[in-house]
Amino acid sequence: MHKVFLGIGGNLGNKKENFIRCEKLIENRVGKITSHSSVFETPPWGFQSENNFWNCVVCLETEMPPEELLYEIQQIENEFGRERKSTGYVSREMDIDILYFDDLFLENNTLIIPHPRIHQRLFVLVPLAEIAPEFKHPLLRQTSLQMLENCKDTSVITKVNF
Q1: What pTM was computed for the model?
Q2: All residues at 6 or more sequence positions from 141 whose CB lies less than 8 Å from its CB, including other chains
Q3: Helices (H) and strands (E) in the chain, counts
């Protein structure tokens, strides 16, 4: 079994229903969710939108290799109407990112693990530190808490009463 951390976020539609449905799809198709952070409301990162995001991090166990995992989560995103564009960030109902896959480092044309911007984003670090404060980034060799303390992102993060 592989231990995987996924970042889940979205800023369109009924966010609560989207999160519940997304996590059910993950459990049905990918693996068992073993821990779940709180849900946090955050401003868009890297683009402008009238709609704030909801974000969380889940830890799961899966038997899938990384490429198969990526394929399955992209299929889940597609069910939420996700369109992939090369023009940067856009609003979306659901976005799922592979943050960590065990302590693997992988970089190819379709996938980079660990996610290359974990250490720059409070909307990832706050929920990650909540469920895995001592987990060490395989390349930076810092724990989630250490990265959170060193993060330069000044976004306002608010816990959602989910």
Answers
A1: 0.93
A2: none
A3: 4, 8
Inter-residue contact 118 to 125 (CB < 8 Å)? yes
Distance CA 28, CA 41 (A): 26
Task: Enumerate residues 6+ apart whose C-beta is below 8 A from 30.
Answer: 60, 62, 64, 69, 72, 73
Helix runs in 1-115, H state only: 15-29, 66-79
Q: What whole-number distance in Å separates Cα of residue 28 and Cα of residue 116?
A: 27
Average pLDDT over residues 132-156: 95
Structure-block tokens of residue 34 = 């073993």
Residue 146: CA count within 13 A, CB half-sphere: 8
Q: Is the pLDDT of residue 129 over 70?
A: yes
Residues with catalytic roles:
82, 92, 95, 97
Give the Å distances, CA to CA, from 121 to 134, 143, 148.
17, 14, 9
DSSP string computed for 110-144: S-EES-TTGGG-HHHHHHHHHH-TTPBPTTT--BH
